[in-house]
Design a protein that fits this description.
By secondary structure, the chain is an alpha/beta fold. The protein has five helices and eight strands, in the order βαβββαβαβαβαβ.
Length: 116
């Protein structure tokens, strides 16, 4: 099952930080991790990365892994340098206040499948 990104934003009460023009995109899977070496092993399309690791390395990892959608949970905030890099790479970046566990649970409850 796939879900429009705009629907996920409503479910998570998330804030769109970058990539507003892509809110009609569909996500099919989600993967949650703060360990970017695990993220680098992924190879799937329409993946939403859920993380609390709010730094430039997360944006670079998403770029290298062809991940277009990132949500920073635990009320983590994107800084200006991250925003510029995300915008350059046409990524959708979201922020939400929920814990990683709750974020994953809400998305799963609404039909988003885990990658594994």
């Amino acid at each position: 099952m796939q879900m429009k990104l705009s629907e996920a934003i409503k479910i998570l009460n998330a804030k769109v930080v970058c990539g507003e023009e892509k809110l009609d995109s569909e996500i099919g899977y989600a993967f949650a991790s703060d360990l970017m070496s695990d993220v680098l092993t992924l190879d799937t399309n329409n993946l939403l990365l859920i993380t609390g690791l709010a730094n430039l390395q997360t944006i670079r990892t998403a770029e290298m892994s062809d991940i277009q959608f990132i949500i920073f949970c635990r009320n983590k905030k994107v800084n200006e340098e991250m925003l510029v890099l995300a915008d350059e790479n046409q990524l959708v970046v979201l922020e939400c206040a929920y814990s990683m566990f709750k974020t994953c649970g809400l998305l799963f409850q609404h039909g988003i499948q885990p990658l594994y």
